[in-house]
Design brief:
The chain has 99 residues and is α/β, with parallel strands linked by helices. 40% of the residues lie in helices and 24% in strands. The protein is built from 4 helices and 4 strands, in the order E-H-E-H-E-H-E-H. The protein is globular, with a radius of gyration of 12 Å.
């Protein structure tokens, strides 16, 4: 089971929408998951307990401590783009080559 955090600055509506998109993509790809949505501040505190963090691209450095401990930090330009989220999942989680 893949443990995932999706976060945005405030951890409210946007992160909830991203959570639903990520869950849909994982389901499509057959990846068992448990996805939490949170603010960046909340996510920073617990990120090292998760396998993957999705965050806005400019905030990836906020998660360097978790990355050192093995958490994959995936920065996304357009958090609401299902296409980009799926590409990032395929690239960083399934290790598929990017075209």
């Amino acid at each position: 089971m893949l443990r995932v955090i999706v976060c945005c600055v405030n951890g409210m509506g946007t992160s909830q929408m991203i959570k639903m998109k990520v869950e849909k993509i994982f389901s499509k790809l057959g990846i068992e998951n448990n996805v939490l949505h949170a603010s960046i501040g909340e996510a920073k505190k617990i990120a090292s307990n998760y396998d993957v963090v999705f965050c806005p691209l400019p905030y990836t450095k906020e998660f360097e401590t978790a990355a050192v401990k093995g958490t994959k930090i995936i920065g996304v330009k357009n958090l609401l783009s299902e296409k980009e989220l799926e590409e990032k999942i395929r690239e960083h989680i399934l290790n598929e080559p990017v075209h």
